[in-house]
């Protein structure tokens, strides 16, 4: 099982934009309204912190590899190599580079019309890390930090997320 997780502040920011373009989801005129719903477990797929917490009990299982979106952004070649090794897939250097190039955010965004049709514009927005800094107020930062500590602080999944690196202003 490959478990891909992302820091909760960027998850909230990304889902805010996603939900505002998906007619089947509630849309939010203001970020503050979305944030309140996100923090009070009123998301279509439930609470992200509970999701992370539920996976923590499997973090050390031999058949589970946890990797973060941020890791893949930092060093895509190392991430792809680690995933291939986990699944016992042998890759030549040329194949590795091909996977890295084709799985880059920009490549997937450029190919989205072919691979996802019109829905591709919804799925691929920015693809960056730390866009949350453009949305979170100081109070929202504190609330998210507290929720992170309560749910996954000190856990294997929590450590993997490098919260101090990616989620501190």
Q: Multimeric state of these chains? A: single chain
Average predicted local confidence, pLDDT: 92
The string of secondary-structure elements, in order, is EHHHEHHHHHHHH
Structural class: mainly alpha
CATH architectural category: 3-Layer(aba) Sandwich
CATH class identity = Alpha Beta
Main sheet strand line-up: 1-2
Give the count of structural domains. Answer: 1
Radius of gyration: 17 Å
Share in β-strands? under 5%
Q: Briefly note the CATH topology name.
A: Rossmann fold
What is the CATH homologous superfamily assignment? P-loop containing nucleotide triphosphate hydrolases
How far the N terminus sits from the C terminus, by CA atoms, comes to 32 Å
Total DSSP E strands: 2
- List low-pLDDT spans: none
Q: How many DSSP helices?
A: 11
Helices and strands in order:
Layout: E1 2-5, H1 8-21, H2 31-39, H3 48-56, E2 65-68, H4 69-74, H5 76-86, H6 93-102, H7 105-116, H8 120-123, H9 138-151, H10 156-160, H11 163-166
Parallel strand pairs: 1-2
Helix pairs in contact: 5-6
Keywords: Transferase
Family: Belongs to the sulfotransferase 1 family.
Domain Sulfotransferase: 1-155
